[in-house]
Amino acid sequence: MLHLKAVLLALAAGQLGIAIPSGTSETTAGATTKYCDVSTTICYAEYTSPANVIYRIALPDTATTASPFDILLQIIAPRTVGWAAVAWGGQMAYNPLTVAWPNGNSTIVSSRRATGHILPGTYPGATYATLPGSKTNATHWQLDVLCSGCSQWTDQNGKAVALNPAGTSVPLAYGSSVRAVTDPSNNASRFSAHDSKGRWLQDLNSAKIANFTSLVHAYANAVEVSAT
Q1: Which of 72, 104, 187, 218 has fewest C-beta within 10 Å?
Q2: Long-range CB contacts (within 8 A, 24+) of 149-153
């Protein structure tokens, strides 16, 4: 079990070796790729932002627009990144935001939703199970979470919105900042405006994996055992 944790650390560290350019504001999409973790056998659809923040997404292969589905999200960022976020509706306002940042040797996830270009408030419509693989070391930080409530929501007019798990060009948005949040131990902390932002077109169909629930459960249990 200790071997699994070491491999996970090595894999994540190997992805991050480039410094973040400060003051960037990105609005163009880049390509998504497939990433498979040899230790957990979980495969993700992966996107890397211009700020060198990696966003990885996995979905159940049974997911449809007819009902909400859980999303496995992994964010890996250089230690110089103060916070990073995903907007599931492809824009800042009126959709679930998953915001993450380092806190000591661990990481914090914060569920947010904005009503405009202002500090997003906390959002109870999405809940997160933080997996024990979430961590911070000398070079990077990593958040692994299972989100319930990120696949469906209501917009500013009360209209139901759902991610299309079969979509091959689903718009998602990212944001990040080199500035640390005000209170890292508090998931309701204030944080500064992004200095890198943009959208990408995510192939969610390629993010589907078979045996989603059992793979996530096995991954969580394996890392939990290695940490004891």
Answers
A1: 104
A2: 149/68, 149/96, 149/111, 149/125, 150/71, 150/73, 150/88, 150/96, 150/98, 150/126, 151/63, 151/68, 151/69, 151/70, 151/71, 151/88, 152/68, 153/88, 153/89, 153/95, 153/96, 153/125, 153/126
Distance of CA 180 to the CA centre of its chain: 17
Return d(Cα 93, Cα 114) in angstroms, integer.
Answer: 5
Q: What is the pTM of this model?
A: 0.84
pLDDT in tens, 18-34: 222 223 334 345 578 99
CB atoms within 10 A of CB 51: 27
Counting every residue, how long is the chain?
228
Distance in angstroms (rounded) separating the CA atoms of residues 228 and 226:
6
pLDDT digits (tens, 9 = 90+) for 51-70: 999 999 999 999 999 999 99
Helix, strand, or coil (residue 216) = helix
Both tokens of 158, joined, read: 């009360």
Residues contacting 151, CB < 8 A, separation 6+: 63, 68, 69, 70, 71, 88, 162, 163, 165
Nearest to 87 by CA among 179, 150, 143, 23: 150
Rounded to whole angstroms, how far apart are CA atoms 216 and 109?
Answer: 18
The single-letter DSSP state of residue 192 is: P
Q: Are 18 and 52 in contact (CB under 8 A)?
A: yes
Tokens 């249990």 correspond to what residue? 221
